[in-house]
Design brief:
- This protein has a single domain, classed as Alkaline Phosphatase, subunit A.
- About 30% of the residues lie in helices and about 15% in strands.
- It has 13 helices and 19 strands.
- The strands form four sheets. It has a ten-stranded mixed sheet with strand order 7-6-5-4-8-1-9-13-2-14, sandwiched between helices. The chain has a four-stranded antiparallel sheet with strand order 16-17-18-19, covered by helices on one side. A three-stranded mixed sheet has the order 12-3-15.
């Protein structure tokens, strides 16, 4: 009898342990808007900027140092995060483009998670839903809390599971509280969960929480580390010289080859406001992580932190994003999951936002759908030597109506050492940069004969990537295809 009881005790203990070990991971995806890749405390880019919760997330997990977006504006990037496909594939290549769910031939990773027993929620900005009521809710989510377009920093109008309402307070705090409430009170605790917390901050107009409006008073913004010699656009495309001065010249005007240096920073106040707005995001991350710990789900949750695109803080005289420069296309990417990821680890390989959806599905033990163009980063972030990882990336931009931020259509290929930017302009030059010796991309080598062979190799590589990813320069081809299917 005693032996039987001992056997039953050991069996139960083993089964409970096995059940615990076999438990599917949860997912928390925190996405910030317009956060520069180096606007974090641990980068030491801004000595006065303290982001203890973001820093701790990085020290507890992996920092993917070279993480890029496939198109550097809000909606296209967010759709790529969700679907694992390029903008020219998922069709959202403009901020204000509405894609009818009935036409979608792909699915957000949340759909696949739901099909495999997950409960899903989206809380925060989406920028791909332009209708109201129930029609505002995007496919793949059990709980929905969002708003149309950019939303408002204060007292925002929101859509709570299809019901239009108005909230009182500061948007970052509101989204944080909704997230905590869903985790504690609304979700089914018997199911694994996937939760998006997608902030409005730190998007322009960069309005910080009232409690942070006096932060960094008296502090000085350091100059960009690689733009210490000021940008004059010598040897660069004419369209950039037009852009930096607000396109003040008329068609046919003779544009000077070199512009007078513009004093940096372009707008110190706005840059400081962006950094102040980030502090509430850091506080939010800390509160949500604390909640996960209280409900016993912290170490079983894959926590992902990133931004939908980079942001110019005066580099090259620019603000905003959109262009193929590093400041625009590179974003932070931090992932914590102590069961598989070593503390304070780094990944140096070039990764893309289309890689996140396959990675999440891989964590969950779900095979990548054929339509997804990204690759799972799981082996990379586990510290394995992945010999066949990509050596180059493709970036695209379809010009939109955001004057004066926009440039021309662009297609860029980036390797570890070089970047080639095709501006699709027959009457202007392209761009070629040596990223090792010129990380600030100040010296355009496109007309330097010593780099002709490198340019040739990069154009060949660009063609290969275009074929691989089924690139189409017609921004409306996807929509035309869907309309044709409906007829």
């Amino acid at each position: 009898m005693v032996r039987l009881l001992i056997f039953l005790f050991i069996s139960c203990t083993f089964n409970l342990s096995a059940e615990k070990n076999d438990k599917k991971p949860n997912f928390l995806f925190v996405l910030v808007d317009d956060q520069p890749h180096d606007a974090v405390g641990f980068s030491k880019r801004y000595p006065f900027l303290k982001t203890p919760n973001i820093d701790k997330l990085a020290s507890d997990g992996v920092n993917i140092k070279n993480f890029f977006v496939t198109q550097s504006i809000c909606s296209p990037s967010r759709a790529s995060f969700l679907t694992g496909t390029y903008p020219h594939i998922h069709g959202v290549n403009q901020n204000n483009k509405h894609v009818d769910p009935d036409w979608i031939s792909f699915a957000p990773y949340s759909v696949h998670l739901r099909e495999n027993g997950y409960e899903t929620a989206h809380i925060g900005k989406i920028h791909m839903a332009h209708k109201r009521g129930k029609e505002h809710i995007r496919p793949g989510f059990d709980y929905w809390y969002s708003f149309i377009g950019q939303g408002q920093y204060f007292n925002p109008e929101v859509n709570d599971n299809g019901v239009e309402t108005k909230e009182e307070g500061y948007i970052t705090d509101i989204l944080t509280q909704k997230t905590i409430d869903w985790l504690v009170n609304k979700r089914d605790s018997n199911k694994p969960f996937s939760l998006n917390l997608w902030h409005k901050a730190v998007h322009e107009r960069h309005l910080p929480a009232p409690r942070h409006k006096e932060l960094f008073k008296g502090e000085k913004l350091p100059e960009p580390p690689h733009n210490m010699h000021k940008e004059t656009f010598e040897g660069k495309p004419e369209w950039q010289r037009r852009k930096t001065f607000g396109f003040k010249w008329n068609e046919g005007d003779e544009i000077p080859e070199t512009l007078k240096e513009k004093k940096w920073p372009i707008n110190k106040y706005k840059n400081m406001q962006l950094l102040r707005s980030l502090i509430a995001v850091d506080e939010s991350l800390g509160k949500v992580i604390e909640t996960l710990e209280k409900i016993g789900e912290l170490d079983n949750t894959v926590i992902i932190y990133s931004s939908d695109n980079g942001y110019f803080m005066g580099e090259h005289t620019f603000k905003d994003k959109r262009l193929a420069y590093e400041n625009s296309i590179r974003v932070p990417m931090i992932i914590r999951y102590p069961k598989l990821i070593k503390k304070n680890s780094e990944v140096s390989e070039q990764c893309l936002n289309i890689d996140l959806a396959p990675t999440i599905l891989d964590f969950a033990g779900i095979n990548k759908p054929e339509y997804m163009q990204g690759e799972s980063m799981l082996d990379l972030i586990k510290g394995k030597n992945v010999k066949k990882w990509r050596k180059s990336i493709l970036f695209e931009y379809y010009v939109d109506d955001a004057w004066p931020y926009a440039g021309p259509d662009q297609l860029a290929v980036r390797t570890k050492n070089f970047k080639l930017v095709d501006n699709f302009l027959g009457n202007d030059i392209d761009e070629l940069y040596d990223l090792i010796n010129d990380p600030g991309e100040m010296n355009n080598l496109i007309n330097d004969e010593d780099y002709d062979e490198i340019e040739k190799e990069l154009r060949i590589e660009s063609k290969r990537l275009q074929k691989k990813y089924k690139y189409n320069p017609d921004r409306d081809w996807w929509l035309k295809t869907q309309i044709k299917k409906q007829r």
